[in-house]
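Q: Could you fold this chain for me?
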Amino acid sequence: MSERAGYIPLVGSLIHSTIWREPDHVRLLWITMLCMADADGYVMASVPGLADAARITVEQCRKGLAVLMAPDPDSRDQTDQGRRVFATDGGWVIPAVPRYREKIKTSIGNAERCRRYRERAAADRAGGKIPPTPLL
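A: Sure. Below is the predicted structure, expressed as structure tokens.
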């Protein structure tokens, strides 16, 4: 992993993706790669190292990588024909990581703005500027 470690929270929609229909070793590999990816989506590892991290066999890792690098006509994201992973020097790249990070950043920003609004509204209510919210 590079010095620019990434952070990709698993989202609930993962279980509704086509990857969830794949065998266990492919799902384990995918989740492991998401965890290992740096902020730019790079996963730096050898096949045996990646297999060890995912707790699958080297053969399962090779087969899983073939699935992740293949086009997926049913994928919701048809960027790169639904391919999730590309081989690169020293490992693989997950091109969707920067896009997902941006979505997460926007979502976190929206949540932070809502939190600040609720705090201001509570302070205004406590200070008598806004009448208390009636109980229904």
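A (continued): The chain has four helices and three strands.
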